[in-house]
Write a structure and sequence with these properties.
CATH architecture of the largest domain in chain A: 3-Layer(bba) Sandwich
CATH topology of the largest domain in chain A: FAD/NAD(P)-binding domain
Shape of chain A: globular
Largest sheet of chain A: 7 strands, mixed
CATH superfamily of the largest domain in chain A: FAD/NAD(P)-binding domain
GO molecular function (chain A): oxidoreductase activity
InterPro entries (chain B): 2Fe-2S-bd_N, 2Fe-2S_ferredoxin-like_sf, 2Fe-2S_ferredoxin-type
Strand order of the largest sheet of chain B: 3-2-8-6-7
Number of strands of chain A: 22
Helix content of chain B: under 10%
Radius of gyration of chain A: 22 Å
Number of strands of chain B: 8
CATH class of one domain in chain B: Alpha Beta
CATH architecture of one domain in chain B: Roll
Distance between the termini of chain B: 40 Å
Protein name (chain A): NAD(P)-binding protein
Keywords (chain A): Oxidoreductase
CATH topology of one domain in chain B: Ubiquitin-like (UB roll)
Order of helices and strands of chain B: EEEHEEEEE
CATH class of the largest domain in chain A: Alpha Beta
Structural class of chain B: mainly beta
GO molecular function (chain B): iron-sulfur cluster binding; oxidoreductase activity
Oligomer: heterodimer
């Protein structure tokens, strides 16, 4: 790829090369827009289709057909004529469409008339005792190791928590011959009862439901020890993880392993939208913040900036691809490449498809709602891993008058480490909300500001 | 390659042996798979502690593998605080454990606080 000059101008800049970002770019390119896509990785795919263009047959087989299907969208993207800036860390998106990014140790910028943010999701934090010990990773992190480097745990592994990704990884490990010591599931009987209310709706999304049932039955057939309704999860170990302690049916249990993979769902990555001062709402079903947008994903009050994919709320890869197409159509219409009629007629089947893809969400969201104890931890548990601030510290700040996440910074540097509250932000909001006896909405979130990604003074000084 | 690695390459008939590169971790020579992240390379080579935390100086290692958590920070070729999960491993890289808080040098992040 030829080097891009600072100050280049585009009709559309897309941030993120997952299904939403690639789809937005493909759609806008097909209508003749000049499109650039920036992504941190060396190859397209985002996290869900990570490494899809380089995966070997063995990996494709282990990871399954849903992963393999990502190749189609990657192929379409590669022939779309989008300028793809790989290894580009976007550290600022301006309200005017300026994109500042770091690539190969050099800081550059470009300008786009319209912007689609497709920065996807991240795993929800799982703050339990011992979760900072080496050997504890997210299940999503372990899946990234599998997709990007063909790496799997070398000894029997523990999968703990709840949600589709946890069982999917278990299924993939079974196919890869990776021994699973135990699945320790936090889902309990009351979750199944509450979710049953959404079952009819979910049945309309039968292929997805069937896939979930297939994963669960494979784990059962694989004779993986499966504990349901686990509470009091605590990672054991002093310098590294040695096992997991938990309670099931009133009985205290302990399982040994040096690799413990935690997961309780994914949440939108909202760093960019917060940094743009976009309006967000607390979603009490998915327990996360989502930006306020119109039917095309356009941010409220920011007419040239859109969000597509899981950054809008968790809907999965197929929904993300559709949301990317919808944003791409509106971007093309605003650019004058198609009229409103053409936009709407192309959008109609997409909206039907999106509704279909989202039909299973209420069922999944209720069934796998992460437990309060695993989101709003006991006093001794570290919440902010960077600055080592515990839930008890935060409750102490609240007792002294701290009312929201921003103030935790001055009370105790909470959220001020290099991750800038990315990982702890949701937990901090919920801990404060609980301590104050108010809703997360009232507590709010960190005031996020650029650089979203760390940039050194040296790199800034060398701006091209 | 260390025998006590927590992660190892998938075993299987159709997995092709990956090409390898030589790197150094805390002065120790390691042969690792080409084309993967520094974090993945180190994990597969038996490195299970990447840094010590800034307050209590306790051991830390990768948690998210996608650039969110900053637990995998190491020093790469003299530059501190690199996210090893976002940097591709290259032949001849010299990597070091990052210990405790960073000194304020040219590598300091701009405008982060």
């Amino acid at each position: 790829m030829s080097d891009i000059q600072t100050g280049d101008r585009y009709d559309l800049a897309v941030v993120g090369a997952g299904p939403a970002g690639m789809s937005a770019a493909i759609t806008a390119r097909a209508r003749g827009l000049n499109v650039v896509l920036l992504d941190e990785q060396e190859a397209v795919g985002g996290q869900i289709y990570r490494n899809i263009t380089r995966a070997n047959p063995r990996a494709l087989d282990v990871l399954g057909p849903d992963y393999a299907s990502g190749a189609r969208i990657a192929d379409a993207f590669h022939i779309s004529g989008t300028v793809h800036l790989t290894g580009a860390s976007v550290w600022q998106v301006g309200r005017d469409g300026t994109i500042n990014y770091l690539r190969g140790g050099k800081v550059s910028s470009l300008h786009a008339t319209q912007v689609v943010l497709a920065s996807g999701a991240m795993e929800r934090p799982f703050p339990i005792p011992g979760w900072t010990l080496p050997g504890v990773l997210g299940a999503g992190a372990a899946q990234i190791l599998l997709k990007s480097a063909d790496l799997a745990p070398s000894e029997p592994v523990i999968l703990a928590g709840c949600g589709p990704l946890l069982y999917l990884l278990g299924w993939q490990y079974l196919r890869a011959g990776v021994p699973i010591k135990a699945v320790i599931d936090t889902t309990d009987t009351t979750d199944y009862v509450r979710a049953a209310g959404h079952l009819i709706e979910a049945l309309a999304a039968w292929p997805m439901l069937k896939k979930g049932l297939k994963l669960m039955s494979a784990l059962k057939k694989g004779k993986v020890p499966f504990y349901r309704g686990a509470t009091n999860l605590a990672v054991q170990g002093t310098d590294a993880a040695t096992g997991l302690r938990f309670t099931v049916g009133g009985k205290d249990m302990h399982v040994d392993s040096k690799v413990i993979l935690l997961h309780q769902g994914v949440v939108p990555n909202t760093q960019f939208t917060w940094s743009l001062r976009a309006k967000h709402s607390w979603n009490d079903v998915q327990l996360c913040w989502t930006p306020d947008v119109d039917a095309w994903g356009r941010l409220e009050g920011l007419p040239n900036i859109y969000v597509a994919g899981d950054g809008l709320g968790i809907g999965g890869a197929l929904a993300a691809a559709v949301q990317g197409q919808l944003a791409g159509l509106e971007v093309a219409a605003v650019a004058g490449k198609i009229d409103a009629g053409a936009r709407d007629s192309a959008a109609a089947p997409l909206r039907a498809e999106l509704a279909k893809q989202l039909r299973i969400r209420p069922f999944l969201d209720v069934l796998y709602r992460p437990k309060d104890a695993n989101r709003v931890p006991a006093d001794a548990v570290t919440v902010c891993r960077c600055e080592e601030v515990t839930a008890g510290d935060i409750r102490g700040y609240v007792a002294l008058g701290c009312s929201g996440p921003n103030q935790t910074k001055s009370f105790g540097r909470c959220g001020m480490g290099p991750c800038q509250g990315r990982l702890c932000g949701l937990t901090v909001t919920e801990v404060i909300a609980q301590a104050r006896g108010v809703s997360p909405s009232e507590v709010g979130y960190y005031r996020i500001r650029p650089p979203i990604k760390p940039v050194t003074l040296g790199e800034l000084a060398n701006e091209a | 390659m260390a025998t006590n690695s927590l992660f190892r390459p998938l075993q299987g008939p159709s997995s092709t042996p990956a090409r390898s590169v030589k790197i150094e971790f805390d002065g120790r020579a390691l042969q690792v798979q080409e084309g993967v992240s520094v974090a993945a390379a180190l994990l597969s080579a038996g490195v299970s502690r990447f840094r010590t935390s800034v307050v209590s100086e306790t051991p830390r290692a990768p948690y998210c593998m996608m650039g969110v958590c900053f637990e995998c920070l190491v020093e790469i070729d003299g530059q501190a605080s690199r996210q090893s999960c976002l940097v591709q491993v290259r032949d001849g890289m010299k990597i070091q454990t990052q210990r405790g808080p960073r000194a304020l040098t040219d590598g300091t992040e701009a405008g982060n606080e």
